[in-house]
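On clarity, I found the account of how folds are encoded harder to follow than it need be. What matters is that the chain and its backbone geometry are given together, residue for residue. For the editor and my fellow referees, an illustration may be useful. For illustration, here is how one protein appears when written out as sequence plus structure tokens:

___
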Amino acid sequence: MIDSHCHLADEIFNADLNEVIDRTKQAGFERVLVILEAGNRQEEEQATRVYGLWDAVRVAIGVHPHQSGKFAGNALGAVAVVREQIARTPYTSALGEIGLDYHYDYSPPAAQQAVFRAQLRLARELKLPVVIHSREADNDTISALKTAGGGEVKGVFHCFSGTVELASEALALGFHISFSGILTFPNAQELRNIARQVPLDKLLIETDSPFLTPAPHRGERNEPFRMKQTAETLAAMKGISVPELYRVTTANFHTLFRP
């Protein structure tokens, strides 16, 4: 099994990183995809530490929409930072997480859009899949994927919590959809209904740890080994066993994030 999106380079894991990785391995994980904020030296150094402890891990590198305001009027500067970090990180499998987030006001929408589109063009150039963060920005996200992505860029809508319309648009563009611990929350019935409709060959599963700890462990720090509750919920939605869900999502991960 594979956690397709986690933040093991977050400083919250500094003190017990060895133990976290040991628990992940012992739980049966083949690998995880660690998400890195481009230009964040602390995360880059910790990712090197993670890789030293477990060389099966892979990373995704990108400018998150919350950080895109740093590159307002200079989207090519964001591209340069991402390009340089990817070049010195040979275990990079994707560009991300990138996208748009209008729920919070951390970066102006215009800056988010320019940086997102520039990174999509970089993904096309480097022939890398992308990890998409989209919140309350459905139309602009899809528009950017169609134009700047040009129909060539593929990837995953991570931690999906959007509408059935967004899911349909994403699938029509050939994207995968990944579900997190949100799926286990009592008020997530609509999301569970959407999960039932996602084809098995476009399905991924993640923790987004240290965030979004699944029920019944809300309030505790999330980490990859806690993916079990999400997997049980998602398998029930799809009418398959948990081992079959792990088999399918692992195969989907390898199809999308090579090598």
Notes: The radius of gyration is 17 Å. Residues 109-126 form the longest helix (18 residues). The chain has one domain: 2-256. The mean pLDDT is 97.
